[in-house]
Amino acid sequence: MTEETPGFEEKPDVPSGATPEDAEPKAGSSAAEEPAPAGDANQTAALVAQLDQARKALDERTADLQRLQAEFQNYRRRVERDRIAVKEIAVANLLTELLPVLDDIGRAREHGELVGGFKSVAESLETVAAKMGLQQFGKEGEPFDPTIHEALMHSYAPDVTETTCVAILQPGYRIGERTIRPARVAVAEPQPGAQAVKADEAEAGDDKESGGPDEG
What we know:
Blueprint: H1 20-23, H2 40-110, H3 116-131, E1 134-137, E2 149-157, E3 164-170, E4 172-175, E5 178-181, E6 183-190, H4 194-209
Parallel strand pairs: 2-6
Antiparallel strand pairs: 1-4, 3-6, 4-5
Protein backbone atom coordinates (compact mmCIF):
# COMPACT_ATOMS: atom_id res chain seq x y z
CA MET A 1 0.00 0.00 0.00
CA THR A 2 1.26 3.36 -0.95
CA GLU A 3 1.30 6.00 1.67
CA GLU A 4 0.74 9.65 0.90
CA THR A 5 3.51 11.86 2.03
CA PRO A 6 2.11 14.52 4.25
CA GLY A 7 2.68 18.12 3.19
CA PHE A 8 2.63 17.50 -0.53
CA GLU A 9 -0.34 18.09 -2.88
CA GLU A 10 -0.85 16.54 -6.22
CA LYS A 11 -0.35 18.96 -9.06
CA PRO A 12 -1.56 18.49 -12.61
CA ASP A 13 0.89 17.32 -15.09
CA VAL A 14 2.68 20.14 -16.77
CA PRO A 15 3.79 19.62 -20.33
CA SER A 16 7.48 19.73 -20.95
CA GLY A 17 8.70 23.25 -21.56
CA ALA A 18 5.63 24.92 -19.99
CA THR A 19 5.79 27.22 -17.02
CA PRO A 20 3.80 26.60 -13.88
CA GLU A 21 1.60 29.58 -14.61
CA ASP A 22 0.32 27.78 -17.73
CA ALA A 23 -1.01 24.94 -15.65
CA GLU A 24 -3.04 27.26 -13.40
CA PRO A 25 -6.58 27.95 -14.68
CA LYS A 26 -7.27 31.60 -15.47
CA ALA A 27 -9.97 33.21 -13.42
CA GLY A 28 -13.15 33.86 -15.32
CA SER A 29 -12.00 32.10 -18.49
CA SER A 30 -15.13 29.95 -18.50
CA ALA A 31 -17.49 32.93 -18.47
CA ALA A 32 -18.48 34.41 -21.86
CA GLU A 33 -17.22 37.90 -22.33
CA GLU A 34 -19.93 40.48 -23.45
CA PRO A 35 -18.47 43.54 -25.21
CA ALA A 36 -19.89 46.84 -24.04
CA PRO A 37 -22.14 48.65 -26.65
CA ALA A 38 -19.75 51.51 -27.18
CA GLY A 39 -21.06 54.17 -29.62
CA ASP A 40 -24.51 52.55 -30.21
CA ALA A 41 -26.38 55.62 -28.99
CA ASN A 42 -24.41 57.91 -31.28
CA GLN A 43 -24.93 55.60 -34.24
CA THR A 44 -28.72 55.46 -33.60
CA ALA A 45 -28.92 59.25 -33.37
CA ALA A 46 -27.02 59.56 -36.65
CA LEU A 47 -29.40 57.13 -38.37
CA VAL A 48 -32.44 59.02 -37.06
CA ALA A 49 -30.98 62.28 -38.35
CA GLN A 50 -30.35 60.73 -41.76
CA LEU A 51 -33.93 59.39 -41.83
CA ASP A 52 -35.31 62.86 -41.01
CA GLN A 53 -33.22 64.38 -43.79
CA ALA A 54 -34.47 61.74 -46.25
CA ARG A 55 -38.09 62.40 -45.25
CA LYS A 56 -37.58 66.16 -45.62
CA ALA A 57 -36.02 65.68 -49.06
CA LEU A 58 -38.91 63.39 -50.07
CA ASP A 59 -41.47 65.98 -48.97
CA GLU A 60 -39.68 68.67 -50.96
CA ARG A 61 -39.51 66.50 -54.08
CA THR A 62 -43.20 65.58 -53.70
CA ALA A 63 -44.13 69.28 -53.45
CA ASP A 64 -42.03 70.03 -56.53
CA LEU A 65 -43.74 67.23 -58.45
CA GLN A 66 -47.20 68.46 -57.46
CA ARG A 67 -46.29 72.00 -58.49
CA LEU A 68 -45.00 70.77 -61.85
CA GLN A 69 -48.16 68.74 -62.42
CA ALA A 70 -50.33 71.79 -61.68
CA GLU A 71 -48.26 73.96 -64.01
CA PHE A 72 -48.53 71.34 -66.75
CA GLN A 73 -52.31 71.11 -66.36
CA ASN A 74 -52.57 74.91 -66.57
CA TYR A 75 -50.35 74.85 -69.65
CA ARG A 76 -52.53 72.23 -71.33
CA ARG A 77 -55.69 74.22 -70.60
CA ARG A 78 -54.07 77.41 -71.88
CA VAL A 79 -52.91 75.70 -75.08
CA GLU A 80 -56.37 74.21 -75.66
CA ARG A 81 -58.01 77.58 -75.05
CA ASP A 82 -55.61 79.29 -77.44
CA ARG A 83 -56.16 76.58 -80.04
CA ILE A 84 -59.93 77.07 -79.89
CA ALA A 85 -59.54 80.86 -80.04
CA VAL A 86 -57.26 80.64 -83.09
CA LYS A 87 -59.73 78.32 -84.81
CA GLU A 88 -62.64 80.67 -84.09
CA ILE A 89 -60.67 83.65 -85.40
CA ALA A 90 -59.76 81.78 -88.59
CA VAL A 91 -63.37 80.74 -89.17
CA ALA A 92 -64.62 84.27 -88.44
CA ASN A 93 -62.11 85.77 -90.89
CA LEU A 94 -63.16 83.33 -93.61
CA LEU A 95 -66.86 83.93 -93.10
CA THR A 96 -66.33 87.69 -92.97
CA GLU A 97 -64.87 87.50 -96.46
CA LEU A 98 -67.98 85.62 -97.61
CA LEU A 99 -70.49 88.15 -96.24
CA PRO A 100 -70.60 90.26 -99.44
CA VAL A 101 -71.40 87.11 -101.41
CA LEU A 102 -74.17 86.21 -98.96
CA ASP A 103 -75.53 89.77 -99.30
CA ASP A 104 -75.66 89.36 -103.09
CA ILE A 105 -77.48 86.07 -102.67
CA GLY A 106 -80.01 87.73 -100.36
CA ARG A 107 -80.67 90.57 -102.80
CA ALA A 108 -81.06 88.12 -105.67
CA ARG A 109 -83.60 86.16 -103.61
CA GLU A 110 -85.57 89.33 -102.85
CA HIS A 111 -85.77 90.20 -106.55
CA GLY A 112 -86.69 86.67 -107.62
CA GLU A 113 -83.40 86.15 -109.47
CA LEU A 114 -82.29 83.13 -107.43
CA VAL A 115 -83.17 80.43 -109.96
CA GLY A 116 -81.59 77.48 -111.75
CA GLY A 117 -78.04 76.43 -111.05
CA PHE A 118 -77.28 79.71 -109.32
CA LYS A 119 -79.95 78.89 -106.72
CA SER A 120 -78.42 75.46 -106.05
CA VAL A 121 -74.93 76.91 -105.60
CA ALA A 122 -76.22 79.73 -103.39
CA GLU A 123 -78.14 77.37 -101.12
CA SER A 124 -75.10 75.07 -100.82
CA LEU A 125 -72.93 78.02 -99.80
CA GLU A 126 -75.46 79.13 -97.19
CA THR A 127 -75.64 75.58 -95.83
CA VAL A 128 -71.86 75.35 -95.48
CA ALA A 129 -71.72 78.75 -93.76
CA ALA A 130 -74.42 77.64 -91.30
CA LYS A 131 -72.51 74.43 -90.52
CA MET A 132 -69.48 76.58 -89.66
CA GLY A 133 -71.59 78.41 -87.07
CA LEU A 134 -72.70 81.50 -89.01
CA GLN A 135 -76.06 82.85 -87.87
CA GLN A 136 -78.04 85.68 -89.43
CA PHE A 137 -80.01 88.12 -87.26
CA GLY A 138 -82.05 91.28 -87.60
CA LYS A 139 -85.84 91.52 -88.00
CA GLU A 140 -88.24 94.36 -88.56
CA GLY A 141 -90.17 95.41 -85.48
CA GLU A 142 -87.57 94.35 -82.90
CA PRO A 143 -86.29 96.92 -80.38
CA PHE A 144 -83.14 98.75 -81.39
CA ASP A 145 -80.05 97.43 -79.59
CA PRO A 146 -76.88 99.46 -80.21
CA THR A 147 -74.71 96.45 -79.36
CA ILE A 148 -75.97 94.45 -82.36
CA HIS A 149 -77.64 97.10 -84.56
CA GLU A 150 -76.16 99.95 -86.57
CA ALA A 151 -78.70 102.69 -87.34
CA LEU A 152 -78.25 104.13 -90.84
CA MET A 153 -81.63 105.89 -91.06
CA HIS A 154 -83.70 107.62 -88.41
CA SER A 155 -87.33 108.78 -88.30
CA TYR A 156 -90.30 109.30 -85.98
CA ALA A 157 -93.44 107.21 -85.94
CA PRO A 158 -96.64 107.65 -83.92
CA ASP A 159 -97.26 103.92 -83.60
CA VAL A 160 -94.04 102.93 -81.73
CA THR A 161 -93.43 103.24 -78.00
CA GLU A 162 -89.63 102.81 -78.12
CA THR A 163 -86.81 103.05 -80.62
CA THR A 164 -87.63 100.26 -83.08
CA CYS A 165 -86.01 98.71 -86.15
CA VAL A 166 -88.53 99.45 -88.93
CA ALA A 167 -86.38 98.21 -91.83
CA ILE A 168 -83.41 95.86 -92.16
CA LEU A 169 -81.05 97.40 -94.70
CA GLN A 170 -78.40 94.70 -94.25
CA PRO A 171 -78.68 91.65 -91.99
CA GLY A 172 -76.24 91.08 -89.19
CA TYR A 173 -74.18 87.94 -88.63
CA ARG A 174 -72.75 86.26 -85.56
CA ILE A 175 -70.76 83.15 -84.69
CA GLY A 176 -71.94 81.84 -81.35
CA GLU A 177 -72.00 84.88 -79.07
CA ARG A 178 -69.53 86.82 -81.19
CA THR A 179 -70.97 89.42 -83.56
CA ILE A 180 -68.91 89.68 -86.73
CA ARG A 181 -71.17 92.29 -88.34
CA PRO A 182 -74.02 94.30 -86.81
CA ALA A 183 -77.36 94.49 -88.53
CA ARG A 184 -77.69 97.79 -90.43
CA VAL A 185 -81.17 99.12 -89.90
CA ALA A 186 -83.54 102.05 -90.19
CA VAL A 187 -85.00 103.03 -86.83
CA ALA A 188 -88.06 104.99 -85.76
CA GLU A 189 -88.58 106.73 -82.45
CA PRO A 190 -91.88 107.70 -80.85
CA GLN A 191 -93.34 110.95 -82.18
CA PRO A 192 -92.48 113.84 -79.83
CA GLY A 193 -95.53 114.62 -77.71
CA ALA A 194 -97.35 111.50 -78.87
CA GLN A 195 -97.00 109.82 -75.51
CA ALA A 196 -98.48 112.81 -73.72
CA VAL A 197 -101.46 112.85 -76.12
CA LYS A 198 -101.98 109.11 -75.60
CA ALA A 199 -101.82 109.60 -71.85
CA ASP A 200 -104.50 112.34 -72.03
CA GLU A 201 -106.68 110.14 -74.23
CA ALA A 202 -106.30 107.24 -71.84
CA GLU A 203 -107.21 109.44 -68.89
CA ALA A 204 -110.29 110.78 -70.73
CA GLY A 205 -111.37 107.22 -71.51
CA ASP A 206 -111.10 106.27 -67.86
CA ASP A 207 -113.27 109.25 -66.88
CA LYS A 208 -115.98 108.17 -69.38
CA GLU A 209 -116.01 104.63 -68.08
CA SER A 210 -116.34 105.83 -64.50
CA GLY A 211 -119.29 108.15 -65.39
CA GLY A 212 -117.39 111.42 -65.43
CA PRO A 213 -116.54 113.68 -62.54
CA ASP A 214 -118.88 113.79 -59.54
CA GLU A 215 -121.48 116.61 -59.60
CA GLY A 216 -121.97 118.73 -56.52
